[in-house]
Amino acid sequence: MTVTEQPVLVASRKVRAALDSLLEPDAKEWAKAAVASIPLVPTPVDRQPSAYVRASWSERPRGAVSEIAVSTLTNARALAVRLEWEAPRPSRRISDYNVYADACAVLFARDGRLLEHETMGSPGHPVEGWHWRAGTDEAFVINATGLGTATRVKAHSVCASSRWSEGRWQVVLARPLEADGVPLAKRKKVPVAFAVWTGVAGERAGLKSYSPQAHELQVGQ
Amino acid sequence: MAKDTSPQHQFAMVLDLNKCLGCQTCTIACKTQWTRGSGMDAMWWNIVNTMPGKGTPRNALDLGGGYRDGEPVPGQLPPKAEWGEAWDFDYDEALFSGDGHDYLRPREHDGASPTWGPNWDEDVGAGTYPNSYFFYMPMICMNCSKPACLEACPRDSIYRRDEDGVILIDEDRCHGYRFCIEACPYKRIYFNEQRVIAQKCISCYPRLEAGVAPACVRQCPGRIRHVGHLDDRKSNIYKLVKAWKVALPLRPDFEVEPNVFYIPPTLPVAFDEDGAFDDEAWRMPIEDLRAMFGPGVDEALATIETEREKVAAGGRSELMDILISYNWKDLLGPYPEDPGQIPPPTFDSRKLQR
Fold first, then answer.
1. Distance CA B350, CA B58 (A)
2. What ipTM was predicted for this assembly?
3. pLDDT band at B293; cut points 50, 70, 90
4. B152: chain A residues, CB-CB within 8 Å
5. Does B182 touch chain A (CB under 8 A)?
6. Which of A142-151, A204-213, B8-17, B338-347 has the lowest mean pLDDT?
7. Is the CB of B153 inside 8 Å of chain A's CB atoms?
8. CB contact, 8 Å: B156 with chain A?
9. Which among A113, A212, B9, B287 would be 20 to 30 A from B251, CA to CA?
10. For chain B, what are the domain ranges?
């Protein structure tokens, strides 16, 4: 595992395994996958779309997670992305008004080409996000064309599973290759970015750790 | 700076604190109508607090939010216990235990006896006998002209209706981030943990659209609530707020320009040391009333006193006629229709979408 500030190619290896198996974060298949370490940084407060959030968070620590380990596997029909990061104080669910759950997301260019992840896309270059939030293994999928524009997609094929063990979250997000959403053609590289929200720090919305540059994900053969 | 979202008309309400009975009929009318759904057990979009008191949630008006010199003020988000759980009641224990000594006791979900809840300060009041005092203060969404909640939402989920200035949360857009609850200086937005969305008083907008006044207004046995359009110069709302200047915003220092206004409490005459009426003294320190309703409270109270004396002397007063509300329907302004004549309004989150 290497930490780099250059764009990372997360290559997906093809395995013979059912999707249900890949959705197990500790399945033995994941030992076969290459692991890329992606550096994360806090999102800039001055870029938050709400004046209230800018005023409230200008002095608050955020972006506690500085690194995320990413690996991907492909079977004949689906792509699975596994994210793992350090979470010594996990927030496993929204258990109160003032409790926020840990979460993570993978962001794609909606057309699989140019990813404008810093601005959550633009009208000409929409983005698609696959979200997981602790407390529910139901994945959310969002489309966005700029900061504050994210809209949940009502019908999608992304599924998620999670495990917290020894101070780390392990989350798998998976989708059939042939499905509505970002095109995931075999052997194709798609730009991708990552984000992690730390619940105990009050992180939600645009307050998070994110990969400041786009990386590449290569779908397996 | 707050966003300028001026509507065509501004729905507004005036509540006469000299007439509020604290009966919570408004609270139950609202509860019955709107907050019986999933995750809404502990929600009281309308609540009547006893003042002086800590409010609902605890210390509601001291938790930040709103603006100062036009800049957003960071606010706190109290845990659910500070708002009050939806208590359980053991009817079997109270009604069928057999010994006749048990009563219907509220219990927290863990079985504990509650130590806080909505309007926990019921009738605590302040002052020293015989000059002790309290008054009731109903609280709902203020439909602010500079809504801090709306500006706080990074998802643009909150909007102000162009037709009447009513502020609504689009439940499809809301992702439950809760910045709006922090930013509301009156803490009148609740969090639905089950649906992970923010919810609040909707000013009974389905009723407004059918010409029916909000449930809290129609059900009020004290006739304390007036509704109408603030921009309608013929309305009682306009007369009370703009012409007579006796209806005041709560905590104008929050800079959110609320569209719910209060007739400040005059409270009973104070006694002096000899037990005689002291016309010069106030039971409630005037500084406290100024802190609540702003510097206009002196003039408002003086006007009310003057008009009362005019009537007491056998004269007529337009202001007293409005406040007494001889004709109940005068309270309802442009919303006089009978809810019995329309289909029951239903809570449909799709209608909250823009």
1. 32
2. 0.93
3. very high
4. 50-53
5. yes
6. B338-347
7. yes
8. yes
9. B9
10. 11-85+118-352, 87-117
Q: Which of A51, A149, A204 sits opposite B177 (nearest CB)?
A: A204
Per-residue pLDDT at B353: 54
Structure tokens at B63: 């938790």
Give the strand pairing for A209-210 and A41-42.
antiparallel
**Nearest-CA residue of chain B relative to A98?**
B79
Q: What confidence tier does B341 reach under pLDDT thresholds 50, 70, 90?
A: confident
Structure confidence at residue B5 (pLDDT)? 64
Domain A9-218 indexed as CATH 2.60.40.1190:
yes
- Chain mean pLDDT for chain B: 93
CB A70 within 8 A of CB A211: no
pLDDT in tens, B305-323: 999 999 999 999 999 999 9
A→B contacts (Cβ < 8 Å), by residue, are: 48-53, 55-56, 94-99, 147-152, 204-206
Q: Which residue reads 């409490």 in tokens?
A: B265
> Residues B63-88: pLDDT tens digits?
999 999 999 999 999 999 999 999 99
A and B: number of Cβ contacts within 8 A = 72
Domain B11-85+118-352 belongs in CATH node 3.30.70.20: yes
A131 SS3 class:
strand
Q: Within an 8 Å CB–CB cutoff, is residue B155 touching chain A?
A: yes
Largest CA distance in chain A: 51
Question: pLDDT exceeding 90 applies to what percent of chain B?
Answer: 84
Per-residue pLDDT, A163: 97
**Chain A contact for B293 (CB, 8 A cutoff):** no
- DSSP classification of residue B239: I
- Judge: A205–B176 Cβ closer than 8 Å, yes or no: no
Interface residue B254 vs chain A (CB under 8 A): no
- Give CA separation, A91 vs A116, A164, A165, A206, in Å: 29, 10, 13, 18
pLDDT at B1: 45
Residues 6 or more apart whose CB falls under 8 angstroms from that of A210 comprise A40, A41, A43, A63, A117, A193, A194, A195, A196
- Cβ distance A151 to B178 less than 8 Å, yes or no, reads no
Which one of B73, B78, B154 has the shortest CB-CB distance to A98? B78
Output the six-digit token pair for A101. Answer: 């759950």
Query: Which stretch of B57-71, B122-136, B233-247 has the lowest confidence by average pLDDT?
Result: B122-136
Residue in A closest to B80 by C-alpha = A97
Would you call B179 and A147 a contact, using CB atoms and an 8 Å cutoff? no
The DSSP symbol for A26 reads T
For residue B151, which of B278, B291, B5 has the smallest C-alpha distance? B5
Rounded mean pLDDT, A200-217: 95
